[in-house]
């Protein structure tokens, strides 16, 4: 069993409540050995970094669009079975889905799939008795959703709390937590959300304050039984592991494949499940830093550049000329390379930041990545227009875009034609393919698209023969 933290809307305090609960759970263990497994609904990268920093375990994304309903069930069962407590952070408002037309990929969708109770956060600012109408509406909107209780956020005073409690009493809906207005803990953010953990100098202090908030503001006698019950292993759990005979059929599994993965302040957006699948398919992921390492690691057969904030660290990436040259030479001789979003930007000729300053990059693609105010956001179904190290022409894959940059030139060899989750929404062609590079703004989850990863690794193995 677990609980899923939901909000009545975006910005109501889901992340603060989730982090406070996680921090308090860890702090309640004298030896700090309590196993707390966290999950995040949707394609988020940054919130899971905070989860993992607190729990010491990789946070797992639960996304039925990028993967599948079966994968969500099996991923949750696999990773919650050995934890003492499990906690899921929702996305947007409880019933807000991928298109707004229904609740597909919403917090409610995941709550139904996993049959877990919802803890609903209510914004109590500027309201008193009306809070009961809001809570009643959320409780009855979908009878399949079990709302275990509410957390009252932004409570102004003892008198305000008294009025809220009186209003909610007829609903017999437990109040599981109360956060005052002054309890809000500010976590700094920028153009794509929270600032990642690796860049925060006072992170431990923030975690300590969150742990105190969690310990003092929640009803643990009611919460612990909800989070601590063992969750039965679903029949789909075995689907997360790649069987050895399948690896042999793909020509993989013998070991020896070394994939250089860019991991530093500029490149940090990776799904934990994707990294696990690399290893399960016989690849060794070799971390390196395009900011601080002078060259690529030795004896590598593939390159992996995830997303992140290369625009923020563009000056440092430019300064490390030998690393850029090392990447250029590896790609030029045919090392298979997968680059998504920030990785695509790094392989461009230049990055132009928000102040219109231009910084030379690897120069594989004759275009610049220019930062702008417009946010490109959403799920994309991508239809491959040509072969790449990951896809065959005609393949259809699901991905997610989340960026404020755009490319100044259109590729003469685009990877994809795109449409949104709503199939009526069409987008321009996207992605670049050159040498043995697959580069795109589309972030991919390999959980239900493992053939893409296996094809990439097969190509890496072939390039080494």
Automatic annotation (TrEMBL):
Record-linked CDD domains: CobB_N, GATase1_CobB
Transmembrane segments annotated in the record for this chain: none
UniProt keyword annotations, A-Z: ATP-binding, Cobalamin biosynthesis, Glutamine amidotransferase, Ligase, Magnesium, Nucleotide-binding
Reaction(s) the record says it catalyses: cob(II)yrinate + 2 L-glutamine + 2 ATP + 2 H2O = cob(II)yrinate a,c diamide + 2 L-glutamate + 2 ADP + 2 phosphate + 2 H(+)
Gene Ontology biological-process annotations: cobalamin biosynthetic process
EC number(s) recorded for this UniProt protein: 6.3.5.11
InterPro entries xref list: CbiA/CobB_synth (IPR004484), Class_I_gatase-like (IPR029062), CobQ/CobB/MinD/ParA_Nub-bd_dom (IPR002586), GATase_3 (IPR011698), P-loop_NTPase (IPR027417)
Any one GO molecular-function label of the UniProt entry: cobyrinic acid a,c-diamide synthase activity
Pathway note: Cofactor biosynthesis; adenosylcobalamin biosynthesis; cob(II)yrinate a,c-diamide from sirohydrochlorin (anaerobic route): step 10/10
Domain notes: Comprises of two domains. The C-terminal domain contains the binding site for glutamine and catalyzes the hydrolysis of this substrate to glutamate and ammonia. The N-terminal domain is anticipated to bind ATP and cobyrinate and catalyzes the ultimate synthesis of the diamide product. The ammonia produced via the glutaminase domain is probably translocated to the adjacent domain via a molecular tunnel, where it reacts with an activated intermediate.
Protein family per UniProt: Belongs to the CobB/CbiA family.
Protein name: Cobyrinate a,c-diamide synthase
UniProt source species: Pseudanabaena catenata USMAC16
Gene name of the record: cbiA
């Amino acid at each position: 069993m677990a609980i899923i933290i939901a909000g009545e809307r975006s910005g109501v305090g889901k992340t603060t409540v989730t982090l406070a609960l996680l921090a308090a759970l860890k702090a309640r263990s004298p030896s700090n050995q309590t196993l707390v497994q966290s999950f995040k609904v949707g394609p988020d990268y940054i919130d899971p970094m905070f989860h993992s920093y607190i729990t010491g375990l990789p946070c797992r994304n639960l996304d039925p669009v990028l993967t599948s309903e079966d994968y969500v069930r099996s991923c949750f069962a696999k990773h919650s079975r050995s934890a003492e407590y499990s906690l899921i952070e929702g996305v947007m408002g409880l019933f807000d889905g991928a298109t707004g037309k229904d609740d597909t990929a919403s917090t409610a969708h995941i709550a139904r799939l996993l049959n877990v109770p919802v803890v609903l956060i209510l914004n109590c600012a500027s309201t008193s008795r009306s809070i009961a109408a809001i809570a009643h509406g959320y409780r009855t909107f979908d009878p399949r959703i079990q709302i275990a209780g509410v957390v009252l956020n932004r409570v102004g005073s003892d008198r305000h709390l008294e009025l809220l409690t009186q209003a909610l009493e007829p609903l017999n809906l437990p109040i599981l937590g109360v956060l005052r207005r002054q309890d809000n803990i500010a976590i700094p953010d920028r153009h794509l959300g929270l600032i990642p953990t690796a860049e925060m100098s006072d992170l431990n202090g923030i975690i300590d304050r969150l742990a105190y908030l969690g310990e003092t503001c929640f009803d643990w006698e009611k919460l612990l039984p909800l989070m601590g019950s063992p969750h039965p292993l679903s029949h789909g759990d075995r689907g997360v592991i790649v069987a050895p005979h399948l690896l042999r059929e793909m020509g993989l599994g013998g070991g020896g494949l070394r994939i250089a993965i860019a991991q530093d302040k500029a490149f940090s957006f990776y799904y934990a499940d994707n990294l696990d699948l690399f290893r399960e398919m016989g690849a060794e992921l070799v971390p390196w830093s395009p900011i601080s390492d002078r060259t690529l690691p030795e004896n590598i057969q593939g390159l992996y550049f995830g997303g992140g904030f290369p625009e923020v660290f563009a000056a440092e990436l430019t300064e490390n000329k030998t690393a850029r040259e090392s990447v250029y030479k590896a790609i030029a001789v045919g090392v298979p390379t997968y680059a998504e979003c920030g990785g695509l930007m790094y392989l461009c000729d230049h990055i132009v930041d928000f102040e219109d300053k231009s910084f030379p990059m690897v120069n594989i693609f004759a275009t610049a990545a220019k930062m702008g105010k417009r946010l490109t956001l959403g799920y994309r179904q991508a239809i491959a227009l040509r072969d790449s190290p990951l896809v065959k022409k005609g393949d259809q894959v699901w991905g997610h875009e989340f960026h404020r940059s755009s490319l100044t030139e259109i590729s003469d060899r685009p990877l994809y034609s795109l449409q949104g989750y709503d199939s009526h929404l069409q987008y321009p062609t996207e992605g670049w393919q050159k040498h043995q590079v697959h580069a795109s703004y589309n972030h991919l989850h390999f959980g239900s698209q493992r053939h893409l990863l296996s094809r990439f690794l097969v190509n890496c193995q072939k390039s080494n023969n």
